[in-house]
Structures are given as C-alpha cells and as structure tokens.
UniProtKB/TrEMBL annotation, chains A, B:
Source organism of this protein record: Cellulomonas avistercoris
Taxonomic lineage of the native organism: Bacteria, Bacillati, Actinomycetota, Actinomycetes, Micrococcales
Superkingdom of origin organism: Bacteria
A UniProt-annotated Pfam family: LacI
Molecular function GO labels: DNA binding
Region (Disordered): 317-354
Name of this chain's protein: LacI family DNA-binding transcriptional regulator
Length: 354, 354
DNA sequence: TTGTAGGCGTTATCAT
DNA sequence: ATGATAACGCCTACAA
C-alpha cells in the first residue's frame, strides 16, 4: 500500500477506478482508525492551489448588513471547497500594504476587494497577477465588479408609492456626490416618467444619510406650500427622521403620509412603528455573487445572478410593510397646526435618542 | 549562492551573522529584482507552524461591537506575524462540524471560540489537540477564557449615579438567566452596599434587552409610589426605552431623571439626545487579549490585561456623557400628570420607530 | 564563510 | 491493479 494509493482513494480520483474494492476499504478503514486528515497545506504546495480567497475590506462597517456580505461569501466559498479570510485595512495605508503582502505570500488563489459604501477604488498593482473581483465598488482598470442595482431599486421604491396612488412624492436622496445617489435619482425619475408624472425639482433633496438630516429635509418638504403626500428616503435611517418630522406635526403614518426607506436595515426599518416599507440592499447575494465569479465551475447550488460583461448587478427587492397607504384626499395643511404642548420643551423634539 | 544562504538572509537568521555583507547584499538585491516573496505555505509545511489562528463564532452579530472584536484580534495577530480567519457557524451544527474539519485540515495553529452573547459553550473534542481560548464565553472543561468584567462594570455604572448624589437607583437588568445579568446584579449590589444604601428589590427588574422592554419597565418604575431618581439599564437599547418613558411623562433628562446604559453601543448611546452615559464593553481589548494569550511571546506593543488563572477579565470602563445630573430636590409626582394631547393617538407612543 | 542534502505531506508520473 | 519516486518551496543540520 503506497502513498499514491491512499491519495487516490482519499480524493476519490477518477483514476482510482482501477482499485480493488478490497484495498479501497482497507484505506478507508485506516483513515478512520488513524483519524487521518490530509494536510491541506502540503496539498496546496503540491497543487499550487490554496483554495483560499482573501477579502480586503476598507472597514468592517458598524452596519449589520456588512455581516450579510461575509455570510454570503463564506457560504458560497464553503460550498465550493474554499475558505475566505477577511482582512480589514480601515483605510490605513500601512495595513493595506501589509494585507497585499500577506495575500501574495500566503498563496491566496483570489481576492475580493470590498468597501463599506459603494465607491470607486484603486486596486494595488501587485494584484495584477491574481484573480480579483470588486464587491460594492468599482475601478477604471477593467476589473469585474458586483454592485447593487440601485437605479432599479430606487425605481421600485417610487413604484411602491405610485402604486398606492401617490403623485407628489418627495425624495430625500443620499449624498449628491456618491454613485448610489446618482443612480437613485435616475431610478426615481424613471418611475415618474413611466407614470407620466412631471419631475418637480422642489421635491428632491440631498441628505447625508443621518437621522437628523432626514428629519430636517422632511420638515422642509412637509412645510412647503404644496407638500408631498409621500416621501422616500435614501436610507432607513433618514426615513426614521421623516417619521419624527411627521409625528412632530401630528401626521400619522401611513394615513397622512406614506414613507419608504432604503437598505432594509432592520434596526430602523423592521423595528420602526409602523414597520417601514423599504428596499432591501442584497448584501448576502452580492457576497455570494462575488465568490461565485471567482470559483465558477465549482458546484454550489442555485444559479448566479445574471452578469453582463464586467459588472454584475444584483437586484434590490422592494419590501412592503406598513408605512404606505393611499394619499390623503384633502391636502395636508400648508403650515403645521400649532400643537398645544404641556411642557416647556416645545423646541426640542423629544424623539431622536437613537 | 545556495538556497540556505538565501534562507538565512531572508529570515535574518541569527546564524546568518557569519555572512559577508557582500553576499547579503547580493541576496537582497536579487530579492528586490525578482520581487521574491517566500512561499509561506511551504515554510509552514517545513516548520509545522502556519501562523494562522481560526476564529469560530456562533454568529456575526448584527451589533457593531462584534466588529471591534475582530479588529482587536486582527491587529494583535498581525503585530505578531499571524493571520486570523473567522468562520461563522450560525448555530448550524453541520457548519460547525465543517469548521472543525477545516481548522484541523488547514493546519491552523490555534483556535478562538467566540460567541455573540456571553454564555457557556461546549468545545468540540476534536479541538483537544490544539491551543484554544474562549472569547466572551466559557466552558467547564478548563479552557482559558476572556470575559468582560461585568460585575465591576455594573458597579461602575451604579457609582456614576451614586457620585451624582442619587440614592434611589432603579435597575433594569438583562435576562435573568444570563451570566452577564447575574454579574451585573452583584455589581449593582456591591455599589449600593459600599455606599451604605439598602437594597430595595422593588427597584430592580429583569428586562429582555429590547427597547420596548426598557420602556415598559421604566414605566413601572416611574409610576411607582416612590419612584427612583435615576435608572440604570442592562444595555443602551433598553436605556433608550427609558428615555422614551421619561419623555412621555414630560420628564427631562438629566434634570428630572438620570439614566445610564450599558455596552456603549454608539448607535444608541453616543447618538442619543442627550448623549447617554454608559459603560463600555471592551470588545476590542478582549479580541486583543484572546489572541495575546495564544501568541504570547511574540512582540506586540503594550502589555496584556491581567489574567488570573484560567479567566482573563477585561475591565468595562464607565463613559460619562450627558444623561446624569443631581437628583431632583422635590420628588417626582407619584402619578404622571395627565397630559393634554392634541391627537387621538394618546395610547401609542409616537417614538420608538427605531 | 558558504554549499549540500534531506524531509515536511502531498500529488503525479512512471514502472512494475 | 499497485508501488516507487520525484517534485512543490522551504528550512536546517552538517559538511566543505
């Protein structure tokens, strides 16, 4: 019994078809007896394939959905016999450089470069020699990338509102200079256009993704002469700000105002009162897709999302909850009714502790 | 120029002291020229040390501080020339088993088993042959573990309030059956005892870590005949519930009620209005400590936290912000003033959307 | 002061 | 149908 024989049966190599069932059993028995496990490092050395994928991320964000990305990557990788190890650079150049060294020296088979927020990245030249995909980011050097389909996602959000009968839809978009916000603006416009509604620029505003920003912009929208009957926000957090602004003026959701968020960040959307309709950012699927691009061919289960050319877009599904209703028949009063308050704290909104 | 020579200078082996500066330079030059990188897999095969640590976690929690753990582990590991790769099992037995196989087959040098919430764990027997530390969890099989010093942390929280002059301190603890809640109860008692204040069992309640729970229990406490002038909560999220309850009855923080949270979960604490005083769970430091136990001896920088025997406790520092003030001189009205409301929604608290 | 050779645990090629 | 044997890239005694 030679090592070669063992190798055959352990990996059940097709060429091992020629083996006697007897020897095969003998090997298997020995394996069990000795609790034998192939040394994968040695195997890698020999085969020149480590079956490891490195994930370089600028920051492990404080937002939970980033974990979905990791889960998606890991599950797909494991299904294909791969391992993923993630390295966080935190935007620190020294750490980033170290990470590159490690990837090269440790014989990783492939790299995923990912960012917390969708943006353009610069891929280190040292990675030219290794398969790479960009996840939630993009570059101008012809690397493949996996991105959320923001434009159609935003369109879905608007359609949720249009379907309920709204025609004046306020839009508190994200930071103007971001890619996502640009796409979302297009999606919003697409939806209106398809519905034959004129684009009213006074209805769209640029927020900064913070609760407070949502609150502020919603205030402006709601207090305008011809206020919207529905507001969509660039993320769930800002949508919470919209809730606050509505509540402050005694407006009920969804009876008096419909709201839709973006991201489906459960902390804000599912747990809101009433539960917030939103659009889900498909982090899990994106993670899967990125790994899939790298190890396509290895069996995994379901089909990968359709990729056309260099960029694979993953759809953002609308999730309808309780924050959307038909528009109020009577227009919202132009200026908010001065509510009697029992306390001296009329100025400070009592909410917003989170 | 032989491979041995190269090996010496690349690793600057002490035995290479005998080398001519000339040859040394020649090697270095060649390294630069060829962009040579030692193959760490091959090295591992030879040295039987992979310099890799596996992190098995039950779930990558939705809570951001888990990321701090990972950062702490990674930074300490990198400083010592190690790599960490984390594998999430999500409580799935099959995944857990796979993870164990991977750890063994891939020649990881050590394992960290960690959990999202402090609890007892069962360590797979297959790990008997490999250095292991438990992080944020513990077992009864004599494994080393790194834990937050909950008891003294809770004591610190209470002391924050005592120092401000409070003597009636409500405590909305966490789930009764958890280790952390047990420790925290002791810490609360320690603080009161040291201040010579009698323990009033009507002031301590068991919540379930949700905002809503904090809101409910705070309501009970504040509406009791002899309400506390300060409330400490088992986590920041419940403390937000306390804020809500206070605001609902027109109580200002910290003028009418002092509040202290636990965790320092920024989403809830730092961003609250007013900013919440709390106690920080030292996830980053715990991550560092866990790796440190495993690779002690490798230079890293600062000194590790003191560990006595099998468990290394890492202190939870109080962080004072704006939610604590002196107790009100006049007692809070026993029953809340019936506030006039302008809306029909008197029942439903307008807050709590997050 | 430097070079040679053996072996870490695999896999792959070639004999047997 | 199976057994030797070389090689993957590195480290390390030991020899030169």
């Amino acid at each position: 019994m030679s090592s070669a024989t063992v190798s055959f049966v352990v990996n059940d190599d097709p060429k091992a078809q020629t083996l006697t069932q007897a020897t095969r059993d003998k090997v298997l028995e020995a394996v069990r007896l000795l609790d034998y496990r192939p040394n994968l490092q040695a195997r890698s050395l020999r085969t020149q394939r480590s079956h490891s994928i490195a994930v370089l991320t600028d920051e492990l964000t404080a937002v939970p959905y980033e974990n979905s990305t990791i889960r998606g990557m890991q599950e797909r990788a494991w299904a294909g016999g791969f391992m993923v190890t993630t390295m966080t650079t935190g935007g620190n150049a020294a750490l980033a450089e170290h990470a590159v060294e490690v990837v090269l020296a440790r014989q990783f088979d492939a790299v995923i470069v990912t960012t917390a927020f969708t943006r353009e990245v610069e891929v280190p030249a040292a990675f030219d020699s290794i398969p790479l995909v960009l996840l939630n980011c993009f570059s101008r050097d012809g690397h493949r990338s996996v991105l959320p389909a923001e434009r159609s996602g935003s369109r879905s959000a608007a359609e949720l509102l249009l379907a309920a009968g709204h025609t004046r839809i306020g839009f508190i978009n994200g930071l103007r200079e971001t890619w996502a916000a640009g796409q979302r603006r297009l999606g919003y416009r697409d939806a209106l256009r398809a519905a034959g509604i004129a684009y009213d620029r006074t209805l769209v505003r640029w927020g900064d993704y913070q609760t407070d920003s949502g609150h502020r912009h919603a205030t402006v929208l709601l207090d305008s002469p011809n206020p919207p009957t529905a507001i969509m926000a660039g993320n769930d957090r800002m949508a919470v700000g919209v809730y606050y602004a509505a509540y402050q003026r005694g407006l009920r959701i969804p009876e008096d105002l419909s709201v839709v968020g973006y991201d489906d960040h459960a902390e804000f959307s599912a747990h809101a009162v009433p539960a917030m309709s939103t659009v889900r950012l498909p982090y899990y699927e994106m993670g899967r897709a990125a790994v899939d691009l790298l190890i396509a061919g290895t069996p995994a289960g379901d089909a990968p999302p359709t990729g056309h050319g260099l960029v694979t877009e993953v759809e953002c599904q609308p999730v309808a909850r309780k924050s959307i209703g038909p528009p109020r028949s009577d227009p919202i009063a132009p200026s908010p009714p001065a509510r009697p308050r029992d306390q001296a704290r009329d100025d400070a909104p009592p909410e917003n502790p989170t």
